[in-house]
Amino acid sequence: MWNAGAYSFSDELGGFRITSVSGTGTREDPFVIKEELQSATPVTLTIRTTRPIRPFDSSGFYASGIMFVRVEALNNSGQAWVEFEFELQELQGHASVFGDGLSFDQRRTDNANISSDSFAQYSRDFEPYDRLRYTDGKVDPRAMVGFSFLVTDYTPRWRFYLVQDPRIPSS
Predict the structure, then answer these.
(1) Distance CA 54, CA 41 (A)
(2) Are strands 66-75 and 31-37 parallel, antiparallel or unpaired?
(3) DSSP-assigned letter for residue 105
(4) Which domain of life, per UniProt (predicted)?
(5) Whose CA is closest to 25, among 54, 92, 144?
(6) Which CA distances in Å does 45 have to 16, 57, 135?
(7) How many structural domains does the chain have?
């Protein structure tokens, strides 16, 4: 487990390796999660609170339900990635639903907090999933890619999951 701010981040479910985590999760100091993916199959990051939950606190000391995140992933799969999808899950293996309050900043319609250095476009799906898919780009084997986004959880939980799914060409 890697601790940063009021949260811990774990690769305990396998398929990838976290190499570092830093930041407090605020806009000025986002969580930066550096990782290495060994295959082009979905992997799941486990996120837990390590400090008390205090919704909407902006200090970075408490688990607030608002997390600015940057994922920097090394493609060590041996195959180029042509898309990359993230999915939030409050319960592992179950689609996030409206009532759980967990989303990729569902209340905003602009792209102010969503970007990638390797993909030009993105799309978001809500209900019954909370998915963020990056498209129109490519990440070659042994190359790094960065993704930035905002996770909001208006009913903060002690644990939730971020499924990461690199996509390879279909033919």
Answers:
(1) 35
(2) parallel
(3) S
(4) Bacteria
(5) 54
(6) 9, 24, 21
(7) 1
